[in-house]
Amino acid sequence: MAMDDTASPEQVAQGVLDRASELGEEGRYDEALALNDEVIQWFGGTMIPAVRLQVIRALVNKALALVQLDRPEEALAACDEALRQFGGSRDAKLREGLVRVLLYKCVALGQLGRPVEGVAVCDEVLRRLDGATDLLQRELLSEALLRKAVFLRFLGREEEALPVHDELVRRFSRDSEAELRMQAARSLMFKASLLGKLGRHEESLATFEEVDRRFGGERELDLRVEVARALVCRAELLGQLRRVDEALVGFDDVVRRFAEAPEPALRERVSNALNSAGFALLCEAKRLWPRERARALEVLQRARERVDATLDRRPGEPLALGNAGYIAFLQGRRDEARSLLAEALRLGGESVRETELQDAGIHPIPEDEEFRALLRSL
């Protein structure tokens, strides 16, 4: 890139980096990387404060581009170079850049499967941001907390991850910025999932409820979607715990609250609730099948109604088609079952076949062997 002889070094560096940022936003990371390297090569040894800010920006953007290109070793080297050059600086204007470098280093360490070092780097970010108040610093702080919790989970240190999630929720669930409230909601969802993994189901259910309690009145779409997702997950967990009546109340609550929403993301959650309700009823019908056949068939018909309602909303949903096929099979509609299952496999591929084969193992009944044979034949 040609340099303008009339421009100051700061203007030249800023112009090149602005173009690099545009390329990055377009996903052209290789080209952006080359421009960042030009700035580092031209101005890396400068002592002019304003130009040094552009150099740290170039190193930050270089690390980001390398992370996006899945070149974590090089990204790590870029981060370490930035920290070597600027890590000891007390310049407040460099603070944000250095924190971003540390967060990209976390990403690279995650890509390399080095979570122990990742936790240490997250702790360094948290130390540097202690007492942060402005929006950008709060965003970086929330990201560091969430990444630390993920690293701890990866290490199997779940009990240590739980208070990190709690800290993020404490700090940001009432933040004025919607995206930070969204981070708090995500953190609660992670926590609920983690508690379920630990077998602490009542706490998991309560944490899903907490998402609704804290954010159920939000108008922001992303938060409303997260609330709907939490309610579906809670109802699904109740179904897994064989608390079918409570699960159905939970699924119906999602449908009642969001069925008329025009936004596709919320409509999808309603479809998930209907299909999951149908699946919970299908499992309950199979549980009753050996001893109470007449009641089982009644429950199976209720399952059919929920799954049909799903397909009315989303006609090509593979998992719903698979559930419809399973229900049709148990109701004796074998040709229809074959047609529905074939369509589910056509749209959803082998993952649908594997899911259906696994589902057939829930509350096994003699008819399941024929059902598995039908699935394998398609």
UniProtKB/TrEMBL annotation:
Identification of the protein by name: Tetratricopeptide repeat protein
Pfam families in alphabetical order: TPR_16, TPR_4, TPR_8
Gene3D superfamilies xref list: Tetratricopeptide repeat domain
Domain of life the protein comes from: Bacteria
InterPro entries, per the entry: TPR-4, TPR-like_helical_dom_sf, TPR_rpt
SMART domains to which the protein is assigned, alphabetical: TPR (SM00028)
